[in-house]
Amino acid sequence: MKYTHIKELDLTKDFILTCKKDDLGAIKNLLPIENPNFDGSFLTHHLVYGKKGNKIYLVGLGEAKNEANLEDTFRKFCFETKKYWGENIQFYAENLSTESLKKGVIGLEMAQYVIGAFKSTKEEIKDANIKFVSAKDIQKELEEGQFTGEAINKIKGLVDAPPNIKTPEYLGDWAKKSSKESDYKCTIFKHKELEKKGFDAVLAVGKGSINKPVVIVNEYTPKKIKNIDIALVGKGITFDSGGISIKGSTNLHYMKSDMGGAAVVLGVVELVAKLKLDINIVGIVAAAENAVDAESYRPGDVINSYSGKTIEIIDTDAEGRLVLADGISYAIKKFNPEYLIDLATLTGSVVRTLGYSAAGMFTQNQEMANSMSAIGYKYQERVWQLPMFEDYEADLKSDVADIKNFNGKPIEGAINAAKFLEFFTEKHPKWMHLDIAGVSFGGSQYAKMKSATGFGIQLITNFIKEKATK
């Protein structure tokens, strides 16, 4: 899609009009009829014809409570109607706030995502030039909306990609290509370098796979000072069989999505670089495939880690926290960031706790928690804080190692995983863990099976923007 800015609306050509619920009066002067039988309800749209036979699309913005997810109404509208558009269509934007306008562009861009990338017959994507009508200078909003929508679509493409294609090395190649296109530094540590540097937990998880693990380090540092403001660490398990503690076969094909946290980290670094934010960030992805093989690590093993701390393996299906532990330790020792955030599709426990409506948020820093929570509500990527009491630490004590990777109990699973990660943070004062297992992948009206949601791009990018402005 192409988004351009014009200053005057041509009433004789096709155009899009938006309206809040029961507020048709605000745009009545642009309508050819008195009563178009449309009330502006959220997720609704309606077609009327102008005096010259041109199409006028009415799009409902709903009520104040719908402002956080305005993208949805534009995405649905575009998805259902774009096949009827011509090469050019106008979008009347005078009655939209800059934030609503940006959300509109994001929604239009999200409608361009095609999930069937690996079908033999590809779906044709109809391109169009959408001309936004406004007397104000809106170029910045159009550009940011487009870049954000593109980033969401890109990470959805990664999460939805099949695991025989999306190996750890594939993620590294994606990051390398992105870094060249968006002007940031990308370093890939492969097997020998991982051994040399001591990424022992990452190597242990990847031992059972023919597809060897990698660690991706993306650096966007426009500020002249060397200090890193924010480091992001993402879990990049490209397929999770559970290892020797093997998962059941039901829905096992969905374990291609176990690199959702990595996808967010990759997408956010690219987006921040495109937006040219004045902030130094690092994105670290610890990528491996958790497979079953004669060389697979076992329950009962004691492995080392980048931090030098030893880990007793109780369950090889608690592998995501192992690769994150190495990623977190590397971020702290190499970059010493002011803020440290890790993201992972880590536990089924967080889904049982919060369902598919919010990510689990874990931190000892209340300022970070309050900020992330407020941003989550504003952009409909909600998080909910769960406790990090010292009481939970007893369940991770091991007789034979510094810590064990699983408590073996059917309770407190998400908290147990967060406490494990906290053990490797060196008591970092501004660390946060986000368990996005329930929100990064799920049902959708745009796909027959579960698919990627793109959750996290707006949440984390807007947290970074907030810090950049300060």
TrEMBL record:
<keyword id="KW-0464">Manganese</keyword>
<keyword id="KW-0479">Metal-binding</keyword>
<dbReference type="InterPro" id="IPR000819">
    <property type="entry name" value="Peptidase_M17_C"/>
</dbReference>
<keyword id="KW-0378">Hydrolase</keyword>
<dbReference type="GO" id="GO:0070006">
    <property type="term" value="F:metalloaminopeptidase activity"/>
</dbReference>
<feature type="binding site">
    <location>
        <position position="258"/>
    </location>
    <ligand>
        <name>Mn(2+) 2</name>
    </ligand>
</feature>
<dbReference type="GO" id="GO:0005737">
    <property type="term" value="C:cytoplasm"/>
</dbReference>
<keyword id="KW-0031">Aminopeptidase</keyword>
<feature type="binding site">
    <location>
        <position position="240"/>
    </location>
    <ligand>
        <name>Mn(2+) 2</name>
    </ligand>
</feature>
<feature type="binding site">
    <location>
        <position position="319"/>
    </location>
    <ligand>
        <name>Mn(2+) 1</name>
    </ligand>
</feature>
<feature type="binding site">
    <location>
        <position position="240"/>
    </location>
    <ligand>
        <name>Mn(2+) 1</name>
    </ligand>
</feature>
<dbReference type="InterPro" id="IPR023042">
    <property type="entry name" value="Peptidase_M17_leu_NH2_pept"/>
</dbReference>
<feature type="domain" description="Cytosol aminopeptidase">
    <location>
        <begin position="156"/>
        <end position="460"/>
    </location>
</feature>
<dbReference type="GO" id="GO:0030145">
    <property type="term" value="F:manganese ion binding"/>
</dbReference>
<dbReference type="Pfam" id="PF00883">
    <property type="entry name" value="Peptidase_M17"/>
</dbReference>
<dbReference type="InterPro" id="IPR011356">
    <property type="entry name" value="Leucine_aapep/pepB"/>
</dbReference>
<keyword id="KW-0963">Cytoplasm</keyword>
<dbReference type="GO" id="GO:0006508">
    <property type="term" value="P:proteolysis"/>
</dbReference>
<comment type="function">
    <text>Presumably involved in the processing and regular turnover of intracellular proteins. Catalyzes the removal of unsubstituted N-terminal amino acids from various peptides.</text>
</comment>
<keyword id="KW-0645">Protease</keyword>
<protein>
    <recommendedName>
        <fullName>Probable cytosol aminopeptidase</fullName>
        <ecNumber>3.4.11.1</ecNumber>
        <ecNumber>3.4.11.10</ecNumber>
    </recommendedName>
</protein>
<feature type="binding site">
    <location>
        <position position="319"/>
    </location>
    <ligand>
        <name>Mn(2+) 2</name>
    </ligand>
</feature>
<feature type="binding site">
    <location>
        <position position="317"/>
    </location>
    <ligand>
        <name>Mn(2+) 1</name>
    </ligand>
</feature>
<comment type="similarity">
    <text>Belongs to the peptidase M17 family.</text>
</comment>
<feature type="active site">
    <location>
        <position position="247"/>
    </location>
</feature>
<feature type="active site">
    <location>
        <position position="321"/>
    </location>
</feature>
<feature type="binding site">
    <location>
        <position position="235"/>
    </location>
    <ligand>
        <name>Mn(2+) 2</name>
    </ligand>
</feature>
<dbReference type="InterPro" id="IPR043472">
    <property type="entry name" value="Macro_dom-like"/>
</dbReference>
